[in-house]
Structures
1.
Amino acid sequence: MEKVWTDSELTSSEAKQRPTDENDERWLFANSYYPGRSAEFQIRYREYFMPSRSSLTTHGTAYLYDRQVPIVFMMPGETPARHDSSIATADIAPTIAGLLGVPLPDGVDGENRVSRFSSSPVE
């Protein structure tokens, strides 16, 4: 084990805020923690460790190597381009909504990343 967080550490308002240090994963655990349903503590295993006795994989870890994946948007009128900056998987739906000109309801996770593209919303 690399780190263990308790119920009180995960339910504080500070824990749910996205940190400036992208290696601080506590907020990921805090935002997936559900009091009363989740265990009373959450475990972050050491890097590259799989808590399984079989050769199967899991859904990934909180480490950057599991959280950063390539994403491709193809749109009419866009010039192919590569952007090396990171976006979160939670940004995909708000970005597609932004490209389509669809308003998002309050409280949606993720951010609209349309500004990374040169086109205006599709009409």
2.
Amino acid sequence: MVRFTGSLKVGKLGLASLLALAIGPRGLSAQPQTARGVVFHDADGNGQREAGEEGLAGIKVSNGREIVRTDAQGRYEIAVADDTTIFVLKPRNWSPPLNETFLPRFFYTHKPAGSPPSRYPGVGPTGPLPASVDFPLRPSAEPDRFEAIFFGDTQPRDLKEIGYIAHDVVAELIGATPAAFGVTLGDIVFDDLEMFEPLNRAIALMGLPWYNVIGNHDLNYDAPEDRLADETFERIYGPPYYSFDHGPVHFLVLDNVRWYGRTETRDGHYRPGLGEDQLEFIRNDLALIPGDQLLVLMMHIPLTARWEGTDRDDLFGLIERRPLCFSVSAHTHWQAHQFLTAEQGWRGPAPHHHLINVTVCGSWWSGEPDETGIPHATMQGGAPNGYSIITFDGGSYSIRYKAARRPADYQMHVWAPEVVPSRDSGLAEVLVNVFAGSERSKVEMRVGEAGPWVELHRTIRPDPFFVRMKQREEAEGPSTGYRRLPAIQDSQHLWQGFLPENLAPGAHVIHVRTTDMFGQTYSASRAIQVR
């Protein structure tokens, strides 16, 4: 695929920006320099600027703090230190080159001495700053309406689990999705950073441009401090935080995992946070987009977690007055739609919608393998593993849950007794797990074809199917031959009702329908016997 080099110059940033970069976007002390180059129309797609390939005006370029725009000839200049990634903020209708695994190459890392030695290699020595760092872009039609695929926590431990991902999720998307691009929302791998590249090759089979968010299991846990923990991620994927436009939507990728390395007195650990450099980038980024543009924040750890210091409040302060803003994370291994209010520190005029996305690995590839050898990996809330398909249309969006290797309309399961005494039918409980349900969902049930529709009530409790699977595992004893399911916890998307009283003996069908917050309707049914 195409690569890029560099040339030329734009206006000056001034002393303040140079001083900010003198301590580096990652906190490194270094002599500030000025990087110069051109963002250009790569007409022949070879990644090299050649005669007749014009510079592109008004393109945003960042060093991880500051953002500048190219001039009329496509030229820019920006301050760098000796550990700086320079990157283009992809504009609408233009695309950067992709590498052989469909990862966007929109960045240049300036690290003259390279990353410190580690068992997981980081960036090699880049040597002196090139005279010009150029970025190629090619035209790409981006309509107002488009789809994107969102993976949470693919998280393979080894090549075997990469095989699970390929067969369970990737295979059904090959040649079968109109999505414009895909995103993995962190925990790309499970601590073994050597799995990044084989996993990239598996995901590349879909043929989609693929963006990546850094997660806690994507860090190098040998690193003594946060600024060195993502060196391997940077080598493969580029900057850990950045933004881009696709169609009318602005996507902002956050690195909200802060690493506190191991010392003589403490074990290494992480906490959710952003840091001042990233917050400054976010301030500058948002200042350059319209207030009514749909903004989508993508991160690994949910906004409802316990964040470090005031970082979450500072982030809220930057987005809470924007009328069109949505955020998505992963990390928990259970799906939930959350609506943030003052209880979570949100001060916006309306609740903020935050999606904790379904995970590809479900419950860490646990549970009994099926006939193909793939664990069922049911998540703790009782929903199957899978991914989300998000449709964007101008300033609106809608979300569809997709269970791995299941039909698109498999959106819930219905729990009810197999056999019910007629005299006690009114006491028989029905529980419906609507996998992508939320407090804004409506769930209704009726028995038979002529019975009335009765609205069910949301209840926060364990999913009975998950409880039964967990009990079966425990009854089998310690040696099941597969990884055990995680602990039972309450489901956030469960609805409760009761059968009608005095049902006549015989076979009956329970019909359930649900309408979600986007107006999408799904149905399911379950047969029972009344005696």
3.
Amino acid sequence: MGRAVNHSFNPGPDIVPKRTSAVMRGVKVFGMGKTLQRVLLLEDIEANANLIRFSLESVSGFEVSHAADARAAIESFKIGSYDICLFDHLMPGMTGLDAMRAIRALPNGDAVPFVFLTARSDVANWKQLKENGAQAVIAKPFDIMLLGAQLLDVFHAYQAPCAISGEEQGAEPGWAATPSRSNLAQRGATAYQRF
């Protein structure tokens, strides 16, 4: 007899066992000893947050701390230690961009890269995020199987801008050749842009 399939975004360990991706967990930045392990996630929609956490924890093996609003993200950053911040851009009240600006003003606020998730894929929006200090933007909807690799790409570039994990500058990132069942992976530069 087959098991019932749980279609929620947060399946229990009996449905999808937690596993660590050898590609993701413990990958060291070229020429440095720092690894990408802890992600601060700012996402106000719970279903989206659950999907992102599942992707980053179960598929990529990262530790994810979730904040449901910008003020909670700022407080989490003050008391926690994170390797990268993954923020939703538009939300009620204080935006993800406002939260990034506040975090950048904190001690060690410039020590981590910021990646934004946004449903707005217009050039003006992405330009605004770049000009305010974001390292990358990922358009919604995004490919959950590539999300961890995209964060790794940004993390490596932020830590060692001239030696991106052995890739030549200007070369397409390694995750771009990752096989995916999703057509989203074929969207190219309109789906993901590292600045």
